Amino acid sequence: MWSPFTCIDSTRRRGRWHLGCLIGMLLCAALPAQAAPLEKLLMPGPLTEAHAKYEDDCAQCHKSFSRSIQQQQCRDCHDKVSADIDSKRGFHGLSPQVASLECRQCHTEHKGRKADIVGLSPALFDHAVTDFALEGLHGKVPCADCHVAGKPMRDAPHACNDCHQKDDVHKGQMKDQCQDCHSAKSWRKSEFDHSQTHFPLKDSHRDVACASCHPDRRYKDTPTACASCHGLQDRHGGLFGDRCADCHGAKDWKSARFDHSKTKFPLLGRHRSADCHSCHTEQTRNKTLPTQCIDCHRGSDVHQGRFGRACDSCHSVESWSKKSFDHDRETQFPLQGPHRTVGCSSCHAGAMSMAGKQPKSTPARACVDCHRVDDVHHGQQGDRCDACHQVKSWREGVKFDHDLTLFPLVGLHATASCNECHLDSNYRATATTCNSCHKTDDPHRGAFGTQCQSCHNPAGWQRWTFDHDKQTDFPLEGRHQQAQCESCHKPPVAHTDGIKLDRSCNSCHASDDAHHGGFGKNCERCHQPSAFGDVRIGPRAARTKEAQ
User: Which DSSP helix (H) or strand (E) runs through 376?
Assistant: First the structure.
């Protein structure tokens, strides 16, 4: 039924709707640069004191017309809380309720400067969902004792020593892990497992009072060596160091065990039956004993120190009378051939006096050291006799390769007897030139020098070769090839001076010169070696000579 009030009411509703559309149109038409002033105009209220500095910069916490990014913007500023959420630590990381909520749902802003947007109720807060659950006496401690006003709750200290340092009777010796021994139920009631230390308590040590080892409550750096507590009872006087446990046990110190085989001198053979005091006398009780045989058996050494101190090289601890010595294995001079039958004193001559020095009974090993008087070479061949001689027999089986010397034996030299060249035992001084041995056999009487091998060879002295064209600077041509050597090389000739003759025609044909020297000495300008009667004058002669 129509009523004026209904019409008026309808008109009013239409007016409000038009006004809402108008505002919406104005908002949609606003440019991005005008968004911030508009948001400022529509801000619901002042920020709290903590966020007041951002009041003129809405973009620090908001993005225009978007709430989805606001959560990340909170975490960007509150990075420590954000890290707790990611690492599942602290209240924000452990509380299951916080995980399902956004920051603004608990910490609502724009409530004014004095507003409390933390909204924490100490009476209702569950400390168990933090990194420090309140246990024992901690549950009765007022919040302000740990949480300082004006600082974030999460920054409260966690370590026992942060609050109880002044109450630490250990003065920091046990570091800050108080909970290893103490409990939050009662600090005076402590539990300590000594087996978790470097010195577990065993046997009689279990009954010892703590203060016996830890005077004045000094627990750190307490020495663990037996001697540190039992030094006054050490009847060895420190001779065996501080390793008492090697022989003694914690159950009973008087019952000692000692394994001599673990020392540097294991007891073997007859040493097992020797009495301890035979070596460890009252005078040596606090001294380290030597371990060499000679230290105890010097008076029994029939060798008088000639073989040094290593008695065990020949003798055995089973019996000193039974000895073994293998010259081949235990020395650097194995006995071979007649050396096996030679008496020891032949090489090891005489007893050497100790004279307070290390004996030197080892003779030299070179052959010449013993056979110098028998050396027919008088030292020319050095001291390596074994290079030629054998141990089996010095006279038989002598091996010597002359080819390895500076004068290999070739041809007839190989059949010559040694003394034909080596007139005495001075082998090194023997000359190696042909002339040194064959001077008396030289039909040239030295005219061709000492280089006999230039023409002759060791296979036979009558086998000789000489090429006048290749071995001289005067090749034989024409009638010269038929001439006898003596025709030019007329005896007597004196050594090498008689070999090198004048090569001019005149030197041999001066007496045949029909020109009596009128045309000089260069006969070859007209005459030919084929025949002196064949005379050719002029360019033709030169050309003919070139053709020949």
Answer: none
